[in-house]
Amino acid sequence: MTGPDAPATQRLNKAIAASGLCSRRKADELILAGRVSVNGLPEPSPGRQVRPQDVLAVDGSPLAAPQSYAYVLLHKPVRVVCTAHDPEGRPTVLDCLPEALRELRLYPVGRLDYFSEGLLLLTNDGALAQRLCHPSHHQPKTYEVLVRGAVPPAALEAMRAGMRLAEGEQLAPVTVSAVPQARGTLLRMVLHQGLNRQIRRMCRDLALTILRLCRVAQGPLALGDLPAGVARALTSREVEALRRSVGL
């Protein structure tokens, strides 16, 4: 499920990767080594456009049909847990999805805590999920955090310099801007590492009270104006950008 604009043709290297055989980079190597054929004829160009009905083979063995994956962006609401099942009976992110999507065995990639909201990716593409969760492929995540009152300049400098949490973890520098609001201060924070409850622990140590915490972007994905509790399919371009960002 990649949106209504899925192309009728695609590059040969992308088609090989979509079959689950290997990454796109490895597909390039196979093609350039003369090991790939299209409709029985050797094909030397990774950029060759192929159609769904074309027969692709590697070393003479036809490729499996492309696996059917779904990619869904959900605006997770507050008071919802990021699991497929909660032993305490609380609502889960799967409860936010239409029944047709719940049948696709989607799983959340990463987490937002119970009282946080915002962008959450769900997919049944295990290879992509594994890459996204691995520290070597960590993607910048952007949050809008409303805190009570004014934020002292020293607190902003501590975030930007890379602070040490009370538990002892040393944080990477955080890109942060502050805009005064009627209810307090809106912080826009870009995190480049993925520690558990990092923003809440930072604000705790800086004596800042969080009123609202919302993830608005992750890598090439943006939440936009999607309402809380609503999900949408990623477009084919978003899927392509997401897979490319982790080397698939």
Automatic annotation (TrEMBL):
One of its GO terms (biological process) is enzyme-directed rRNA pseudouridine synthesis. Keywords: Isomerase, RNA-binding. It comes from the Bacteria. Residues 10-68 form the RNA-binding S4 domain. Signal peptide: none annotated. The keyword Isomerase applies. The keyword Transmembrane helix does not apply. It is an enzyme of class 5 (isomerase). SUPFAM superfamilies: Alpha-L RNA-binding motif, Pseudouridine synthase. Its EC number is 5.4.99.-. One of its GO terms (molecular function) is rRNA pseudouridine synthase activity. Belongs to the pseudouridine synthase RsuA family. This is Pseudouridine synthase. It comes from Desulfovibrio legallii.
